[in-house]
Amino acid sequence: MRLFVAIVPPASALAELSAAVEPLQRACPGLRWASPENRHLTLAFLGEVSEDILPELTVRLERAARRHPPQHLALTGGGTFPSTSRARVLWAGVSTDRAALRRLAASIAAGARRAGAAPPDEGRKYHPHLTLARSAAPADLTSVLDGLRSFAGSSWTAASVHLIRSHLGGGAPRYEGIGAFPLAAATLHRRGPGTT
Question: Which residues lie closer than 8 Å to 115 by C-beta, 6 or more apart?
Answer without folding.
Answer: 53, 56, 57, 59, 60, 61
